[in-house]
Write a structure and sequence with these properties.
Helix content: 10-25%
Radius of gyration: 20 Å
CATH architecture of the largest domain: 3-Layer(bba) Sandwich
Number of domains: 2
Strand order of the largest sheet: 1-2
Strand content: 5-15%
CATH class of the largest domain: Alpha Beta
Structural class: alpha+beta
Oligomer: single chain
Distance between the termini: 42 Å
Length: 153
């Protein structure tokens, strides 16, 4: 049994132990290496399962305004702010990969839901977020970590 390394050179893995991990339909946290690692660490007793908290501080809540035309397409909108997150290239790529997996699975290729990730530092602190639907040819945006704007077509 052969596999290739990053340079394309064949590696013999016939004598290696290969583990198969089955991911249950309700364990989307296991769709990324970080989630699998965290689950293994908890299972093996190396660390406790992570505990996340929701801080609903009304004075710092961001308002999301959904335009009426958009509400017909996306009747429900949810937002959250994650604080104290620092990405390097590897963690950013892993995060985007997980977001893509969620889009393709639970979001049914973005037909049921879609996610956007935005740098909150680029928003005015007291300005609401507006959620709008536009024709793809009318959309121009600048993706996270990208320098040049792009369009949807």
């Amino acid at each position: 049994m052969n596999r290739t390394d990053d340079s394309g050179k064949a590696i013999d893995i016939s004598k290696e132990i290969v583990y198969k991990i089955e991911v249950a339909a309700n364990r989307y946290d296991l769709l990324c290496l970080e989630g699998i690692s965290e689950a293994f660490r908890a299972y093996l007793g190396i660390s406790a399962a992570p505990r996340y908290t929701i801080k609903n501080q009304t004075e710092s809540l961001k308002k999301i305004i959904v335009k009426p035309d958009t509400q017909a397409v996306r009747p429900f909108v949810v937002g959250c702010v994650l604080r104290n997150i620092s990405f390097d290239l590897k963690s950013y790529n892993s995060f985007i990969d997980l977001q893509d997996k969620l889009h393709n699975n639970i979001c049914r290729k973005r037909t049921l839901a879609s996610m956007g990730t935005h740098d909150l530092d680029k928003f005015a602190s007291d300005a609401p977020v507006t959620y709008e639907a536009h024709k793809p040819e009318d959309i121009v945006f600048q993706a996270l970590k990208q320098k040049d704007p792009m369009n949807c077509v």
